[in-house]
TrEMBL record:
The lineage of its organism: Bacteria, Bacillati, Actinomycetota, Actinomycetes, Micrococcales. The keyword DNA-binding applies. Keywords: DNA-binding, Transcription, Transcription regulation. It holds the Pfam family GntR. One of its GO terms (molecular function) is DNA-binding transcription factor activity. PANTHER family: HTH-TYPE TRANSCRIPTIONAL REPRESSOR YTRA. Residues 32-100 form the HTH gntR-type domain. This is GntR family transcriptional regulator. InterPro entries: Tscrpt_reg_HTH_GntR, WH-like_DNA-bd_sf, WH_DNA-bd_sf. The keyword Transcription applies. Transmembrane segments: none annotated.
């Protein structure tokens, strides 16, 4: 069962169970969309070790009912988590937490793909690095007229 609180809280209710239930409440006053709040809570729980590789997440419909949000909202969070390599979905068997290494591997691959694409557009490595620093908010890009 999910409990009400004003902030994101991620705990496993029953570690002995194959289904890990989140203690999470959507903050409806937040500027962050509900699917993103849920996605962040699951990522955080995984990073903190609350969720272990192989833990099964609640079914989409069950979690939507518990959180009193639309089924599509939970489905979108799960879809984004799967795309990021945080979870794997096995049809009717459910959605499961992946090992942290799987996400790191995917992140490295995406980074390598990005660098290759930028080089393919003719950018040099220092330019690519400057763009990354800008995207991360570390520095401003100087535009020359």
């Amino acid at each position: 069962m999910l409990h009400a609180s004003s902030q994101i809280n991620t705990d496993v209710v029953s570690p002995a169970s194959d289904v890990s239930i989140l203690h999470f409440t959507v903050n409806k006053d937040s500027d962050t969309p509900p699917y993103s709040q849920l996605r962040r809570a699951i990522i955080s729980a995984r990073a903190q070790g609350t969720f272990k590789a192989g833990d099964r997440l609640p079914p989409v419909r069950s979690l939507a009912q518990e959180l009193n949000i639309a089924v599509n909202t939970v489905a979108k969070a799960y879809k984004e988590l799967e795309a990021a390599g945080v979870i794997e979905t096995h049809g009717r068997a459910g959605s499961f937490i992946t090992a942290v290494d799987a996400t790191e591997h995917k992140a490295h691959q995406l980074t390598a793909d990005y660098v290759a694409a930028m080089r393919g557009l003719g950018f040099e490595d220092p330019q690519i690095l400057t763009m990354c620093r800008h995207a991360l908010g570390f520095e401003q890009i100087q535009h020359h007229a």
